[in-house]
Design brief:
Elements (H helix, E strand, L loop, with lengths): L1 E6 L3 H10 L5 E6 L2 H10 L4 E5 L7 H8 L7 E5 L4 H9 L4 E4 L4 H17 L9 E4 L2 E4 L4 E4 L2 E3 L3 H12 L7 H9 L7 H15 L9 E4 L3 E4 L2
Parallel strand pairs: 1-2, 1-3, 3-4, 4-5
Antiparallel strand pairs: 6-7, 7-8, 8-9, 10-11
Length: about 230
């Protein structure tokens, strides 16, 4: 049994796909925009997504960009001939294939079967969220190791937890108080100096030039972040 998600803001398109792919081995899910699609994928095991590009709320490109952070499920874009540039962008951000509207039912069926077969043969499923990578930094939370350009980095347990939290949230700015409370699980009173020392030590270990950091950056007046 395979779970297939249709994501399109035109119900007629979804209805047509259901007819083309009518098969007792398929269970269908529906979304009308990229945001709804992501919510369904978080809640259900989906084996294939057929997704329109131009949709309200969240378009297909934005949805796929977020999807690739959590899943390697195959995605086939549904495109109009006038959307060639969007189609190429979609392939660049992680789409597996595309089908041009109006659809040829035999083509839809063949491509869906092909991608499902390949996905299951390769052991498809959720991306391993125990490993995080930003540029040359890789953190393996199962092995509790950090490498920089393939070379091991020795961090204290506190430094490791700070780096992991930042790498789990690339681009997100954490205030010193928020970082301290999350890592130490204590009321952040006078935490700035303590945290600054740990940040400096992490920089000395992961930055080529700690004075001009590439990864761990200060957002003045706000806090710290890992540059994605």
């Amino acid at each position: 049994m395979y779970n297939i998600l249709f994501c399109d803001d035109e119900q007629d398109i979804i209805n047509a796909l259901k007819i083309y792919l009518s098969d007792p081995n398929y269970t269908f899910y529906e979304a009308n925009n990229g945001k709804e699609a992501l919510e369904i994928i978080e809640q259900h095991e989906i084996h294939l997504v057929l997704m329109d590009i131009m949709m309200p709320v969240m378009n297909g490109i934005m949805s796929l960009t977020e999807l690739r952070k959590i899943s390697n499920v195959p995605v086939i874009f549904l495109t109009a001939k006038s959307e060639d540039a969007d189609m190429l962008l979609g392939l660049n951000v992680g789409a597996d294939d595309y089908i041009t509207k109006p659809f040829n039912p035999l083509e839809v069926t063949a491509r869906v079967r092909s991608h499902l077969r390949r996905y299951m043969q390769l052991g498809g499923g959720k991306i391993n969220t125990d490993t995080y990578q930003i540029g040359g930094i890789e953190l393996d939370d199962r092995a509790k190791t950090v490498t920089l350009d393939g070379e091991p980095v020795s961090l204290t347990p506190t430094e490791y937890e700070i780096l992991k939290l930042l790498m789990q949230n690339p681009g997100k700015v954490f205030s010193p108080k928020a970082l301290y409370q999350t890592i130490w699980n204590e009321t952040p009173l006078g935490c700035e100096n303590t945290l600054a020392v740990h940040i400096r030590h992490i920089r000395e270990k992961i930055e080529i030039n700690p004075a001009e950091p590439r990864y761990l950056k200060v957002v003045w007046g706000q806090g710290y972040k890992i540059e994605p």
